[in-house]
Model the fold of this input.
Amino acid sequence: MLGMLGITMVAAIAVPIVILDAGHGGREPGAVHQVTEKSLNLDLCFAVERHLHQFGVDTALTRQDDRTISLGDRASYARLFPSQRTIFVSLHYNAAPNAVANGIETFYAPSRASKELAVSVQHQLIGATGATDRRCKKGSQLA
Done:
């Protein structure tokens, strides 16, 4: 999937561990329209995990089934891995009744490396999809 979008790994990160976080889950369905966002997010995480494994990238998932996990628990799980090698990616399909609220946005933890990776990913996603660029944003709960 990432290869189809033209996303490349940042060379400065040697043998990363990518933590894939399927947004929502359990009692938190996320956006609902014929299907639930939580289900789409989990399916996407499994697809991205398979793709990354083809390139020898280690992965970990915050959830592998339909369960509720707090934002704090997701962050705590990520802290179990060596920070120099960890890339945390939370995947979401968002929806809004306002048609102006569309496009791709990438949130990053408050570090230079995280911001650089977010900018690279955002640039690749916008270039590959032509979607509206909602820019990179510092995530307040990602520290």
User: Anything to note?
Assistant: The longest strand covers residues 17-22. The CA atoms of residues 36 and 101 lie 19 Å apart.
